[in-house]
Backbone:
């Protein structure tokens, strides 16, 4: 579990906060995951939006809370926790009503969530290629300079290598863009993972059996983003598609993945142009 030490935190005021506070952004997949979890658990929480479109995650104030410059961040009675999968596992123990990690599955769930997290940069690759305007770098050189200079640079009292990994990803995108080969690799990884999930859902209602769990929440958010990118879910994974649609009908899920009308219009326009030019996700990958 990734809990920051006091020396990792430069924005000291949060150490005095009481209750459940979540820093998040509406369109962030990891934020969506955490909000759906909070909805299902009926946990009262205070919202703090960090506008990723304005690069607020790189502001000195926010980097003083989360040295990795990512959302979400949880402040629970003055303790600062980062990494969405750690947050939902922590909160499931802290608020034991309506368990979303089945008894006896704690270790297995943690392992399966690590596998899901290993695909996060692949999701980012597909998201920025197929839902963002072509030719515009997601992060400028100035953004990355501020990112590298901000925050304590430590997590749990040690130099944080994850931040440099994040910066390297964005520097590669700034230099080379998101190539067709990167798209094919990332989509291929998801195709492999969802093929396995499809087998599970052929015999079970949910990913761990007959009860909804945090694993369903995590994969629901990923699948929603993939569908938004144009991934042919129904064609390739019929059981995952049926599972996804059943969860999407629930208000706890549906309310957290809604795109604003303006954002929806922009994505539709981007994908209209991709369809006309033969550069959709399906075109590039052959899926």
Residues:
């Amino acid at each position: 579990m990734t809990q920051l030490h006091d020396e990792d935190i430069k924005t000291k005021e949060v150490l005095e906060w009481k209750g459940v506070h979540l820093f998040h952004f509406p369109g962030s997949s990891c934020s969506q995951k955490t909000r759906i979890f909070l909805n299902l658990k009926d946990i009262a929480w205070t919202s703090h939006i960090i506008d990723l479109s304005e690069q607020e995650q790189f502001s000195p104030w926010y980097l003083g809370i989360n040295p990795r410059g990512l959302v979400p961040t949880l402040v629970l009675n003055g303790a600062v926790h980062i990494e969405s999968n750690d947050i939902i596992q922590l909160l499931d123990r802290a608020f034991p009503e309506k368990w979303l990690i089945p008894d006896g599955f704690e270790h297995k769930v943690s392992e399966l969530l690590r596998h899901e997290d290993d695909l996060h940069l692949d999701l980012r690759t597909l998201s920025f290629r197929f839902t963002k305007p072509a030719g515009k770098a997601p992060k400028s050189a100035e953004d990355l300079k501020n990112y590298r200079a901000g925050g304590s640079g430590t997590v749990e009292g040690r130099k944080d290598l994850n931040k440099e990994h994040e910066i390297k990803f964005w520097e590669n995108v700034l230099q080379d863009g998101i190539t067709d080969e990167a798209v094919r690799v990332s989509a291929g990884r998801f195709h492999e993972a969802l093929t396995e999930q499809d087998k599970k859902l052929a015999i079970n209602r949910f990913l761990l059996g007959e009860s909804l769990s945090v694993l369903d929440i995590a994969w629901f958010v990923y699948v929603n983003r993939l569908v938004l990118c144009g991934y042919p879910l129904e064609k390739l994974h019929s059981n995952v598609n049926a599972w996804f649609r059943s969860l999407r009908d629930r208000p706890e899920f549906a309310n957290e993945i809604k795109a604003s009308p303006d954002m929806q219009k922009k994505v539709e326009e981007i994908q209209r142009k991709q369809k006309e030019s033969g550069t959709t996700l399906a075109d590039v990958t052959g899926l």
